[in-house]
Design brief:
By secondary structure, the chain is of the alpha/beta class. The chain folds into 2 domains: 150 residues, HAD superfamily/HAD-like (Rossmann fold); 66 residues, DNA polymerase, domain 1. It is globular, with a radius of gyration of 18 Å.
Length: 243
């Protein structure tokens, strides 16, 4: 059974929190699972099928975007003559197929996720992928691993807007400042930070600079549940003191 956010384990700042965050909010694509190359291959195939060309730099510029935003770029820059919803469904079908076959876990991601779940830390998935894509990954996890799932098709405003992370924190009943977000993209970082959530940034296909309320690590491999709060506290302390 998951921890109740209203129980003593979800303490207010300054109280004994056992060294764990009040909740952890995970991005999916590029953070938990290595689906970015799958998205890129699907984008390139679709653009080429419509007589256009698609570069790596164009694909990388879409990392972390709400799918509707990416679809409009594919229509405008790639010449894909499909309605937005149909375009997304074509791309999503390929990603879902790949996730069903192999979730392609990023290094250390599954270990950290399951370690937090075993400790009863409330968890949310916060992804701009649609629910059908998230469900393909969730099939590889024990039922109930995530206490809340926020996907791009339920958000009016996607990342970098704070709405996705505010939704997730509210669904868990944990104040944003007591959560930790785990992200791999500039848009995801902007969304979490705008929501007031400290971030553990794990670069994958794009570089992520250091910044206030943000800690950058090269990989989740070796990161333990008890490390998360110390990482973000150290970063916040440095931002306050100017160290």
């Amino acid at each position: 059974m998951r921890a109740d956010p209203s129980a003593p384990s979800a303490t207010a700042p300054g109280q004994d929190d056992g060294g764990l965050p009040g909740a952890v909010l995970f991005d999916m694509d590029g953070t938990l699972v290595d689906t970015e190359p799958v998205w890129w291959a699907a984008q390139r195939a679709l653009v080429e099928a419509h007589g256009g060309t698609w570069t790596d730099s164009q694909a990388m510029a879409l990392v972390g975007n709400q799918l509707e935003v990416s679809a409009e770029v594919l229509r405008r820059e790639g010449g894909v003559d499909l309605p937005v919803r149909e375009l997304i469904e074509v791309l999503a079908a390929q990603v879902v197929e790949e996730l069903h076959a192999d979730p392609r876990w990023r290094p250390g991601a599954l270990e950290l996720l399951t370690g937090l779940a075993d400790l009863g830390v409330p968890l949310a998935l916060v992804t701009m992928s649609w629910r059908s894509i998230a469900d393909a990954m969730l099939l590889h996890l024990p039922e109930g691993t995530f206490d809340a799932v926020v996907t791009g098709d339920v958000c009016e405003r996607g990342k970098p807007d704070p709405e996705p992370y505010l939704r997730a924190a509210a669904a868990l009943g944990v104040p944003p400042g007591r959560c930790v977000a785990v992200e791999d993209s500039p848009t995801g970082l902007a969304s979490a930070e705008a929501a007031g959530v400290p971030v553990l940034a794990v670069p994958h296909v794009v570089d992520l600079p250091e910044g206030p309320r943000r800690t950058v690590v090269p990989t989740l491999a070796g990161v333990e549940p008890g490390d998360l709060l110390a990482l973000v506290r150290d970063q916040e302390h440095g931002a306050v003191t100017g160290s």
